[in-house]
């Protein structure tokens, strides 16, 4: 509990859902997910540094259904955080603040992230099929 | 209002109420811009890694150009993650004790993660 229980302004529950909220919430959520996902990168690098046996274990985990699920999630998170991050940098330069632009860019980012993640996994599956 | 309540020194320093100025903001954007480029390169490189065996993957990461970019990527990623998580914790954790513990834990974990990655990449690049 906080030291003094001050009244808080009404939060998520009171607002009608709109793209501006969704992009902001997803940016934080995917950021947290990516921070956690970077731990797998550390593990993979340490395994690659320590030898074939450790690397095979990491590769087996990534190939399992659970590992694949995580990787698909992280791929989309990275695609989303990347595209929405570019939108944020664009706004930091002072552009895209009109409501119509905001809504348009929000949808571009959301749909683009799914397409980008899909493209990456299409490459993965194409390689797997070719190998 | 302007300048009335602030000393000229405070205006000149421009450090604001948190005494840190825009440093956090600037570094977060700087690492973000770096990660746009490095992130795309990273995904591209991982796609190349997928169909390689251990020896091939090791050799790919050991290439000087890849090793340097990978070093830049992990350092920028953990730096950016620490800055981002710091803001999330500041916004949503209102208890002093838990906030302090979480902030310190995030900084420690990010530093250890970055250090371990750097060591692994150097070992791959310099070993053998």
Automatic annotation (TrEMBL), chain A:
<comment type="function">
    <text>Membrane-anchoring subunit of succinate dehydrogenase (SDH).</text>
</comment>
<feature type="transmembrane region" description="Helical">
    <location>
        <begin position="25"/>
        <end position="48"/>
    </location>
</feature>
<dbReference type="Pfam" id="PF01127">
    <property type="entry name" value="Sdh_cyt"/>
</dbReference>
<keyword id="KW-0408">Iron</keyword>
<keyword id="KW-0349">Heme</keyword>
<comment type="subunit">
    <text>Part of an enzyme complex containing four subunits: a flavoprotein, an iron-sulfur protein, plus two membrane-anchoring proteins, SdhC and SdhD. The complex can form homotrimers.</text>
</comment>
<feature type="transmembrane region" description="Helical">
    <location>
        <begin position="55"/>
        <end position="76"/>
    </location>
</feature>
<feature type="transmembrane region" description="Helical">
    <location>
        <begin position="107"/>
        <end position="126"/>
    </location>
</feature>
<dbReference type="InterPro" id="IPR018495">
    <property type="entry name" value="Succ_DH_cyt_bsu_CS"/>
</dbReference>
<dbReference type="InterPro" id="IPR014314">
    <property type="entry name" value="Succ_DH_cytb556"/>
</dbReference>
<dbReference type="GO" id="GO:0016020">
    <property type="term" value="C:membrane"/>
</dbReference>
<keyword id="KW-0472">Membrane</keyword>
<keyword id="KW-1133">Transmembrane helix</keyword>
<feature type="binding site" description="axial binding residue">
    <location>
        <position position="81"/>
    </location>
    <ligand>
        <name>heme</name>
    </ligand>
</feature>
<dbReference type="GO" id="GO:0006099">
    <property type="term" value="P:tricarboxylic acid cycle"/>
</dbReference>
<dbReference type="InterPro" id="IPR000701">
    <property type="entry name" value="SuccDH_FuR_B_TM-su"/>
</dbReference>
<keyword id="KW-0812">Transmembrane</keyword>
<comment type="similarity">
    <text>Belongs to the cytochrome b560 family.</text>
</comment>
<dbReference type="GO" id="GO:0046872">
    <property type="term" value="F:metal ion binding"/>
</dbReference>
<dbReference type="GO" id="GO:0009055">
    <property type="term" value="F:electron transfer activity"/>
</dbReference>
<dbReference type="InterPro" id="IPR034804">
    <property type="entry name" value="SQR/QFR_C/D"/>
</dbReference>
<protein>
    <recommendedName>
        <fullName>Succinate dehydrogenase cytochrome b556 subunit</fullName>
    </recommendedName>
</protein>
TrEMBL record, chain B:
<dbReference type="GO" id="GO:0020037">
    <property type="term" value="F:heme binding"/>
</dbReference>
<feature type="transmembrane region" description="Helical">
    <location>
        <begin position="100"/>
        <end position="122"/>
    </location>
</feature>
<dbReference type="InterPro" id="IPR014312">
    <property type="entry name" value="Succ_DH_anchor"/>
</dbReference>
<keyword id="KW-1133">Transmembrane helix</keyword>
<dbReference type="InterPro" id="IPR034804">
    <property type="entry name" value="SQR/QFR_C/D"/>
</dbReference>
<keyword id="KW-0249">Electron transport</keyword>
<comment type="function">
    <text>Membrane-anchoring subunit of succinate dehydrogenase (SDH).</text>
</comment>
<keyword id="KW-0349">Heme</keyword>
<keyword id="KW-0812">Transmembrane</keyword>
<keyword id="KW-0479">Metal-binding</keyword>
<feature type="transmembrane region" description="Helical">
    <location>
        <begin position="26"/>
        <end position="47"/>
    </location>
</feature>
<keyword id="KW-0997">Cell inner membrane</keyword>
<dbReference type="GO" id="GO:0009055">
    <property type="term" value="F:electron transfer activity"/>
</dbReference>
<dbReference type="GO" id="GO:0017004">
    <property type="term" value="P:cytochrome complex assembly"/>
</dbReference>
<keyword id="KW-0813">Transport</keyword>
<dbReference type="Pfam" id="PF01127">
    <property type="entry name" value="Sdh_cyt"/>
</dbReference>
<keyword id="KW-1003">Cell membrane</keyword>
<dbReference type="GO" id="GO:0046872">
    <property type="term" value="F:metal ion binding"/>
</dbReference>
<dbReference type="InterPro" id="IPR000701">
    <property type="entry name" value="SuccDH_FuR_B_TM-su"/>
</dbReference>
<protein>
    <recommendedName>
        <fullName>Succinate dehydrogenase hydrophobic membrane anchor subunit</fullName>
    </recommendedName>
</protein>
<keyword id="KW-0816">Tricarboxylic acid cycle</keyword>
<keyword id="KW-0472">Membrane</keyword>
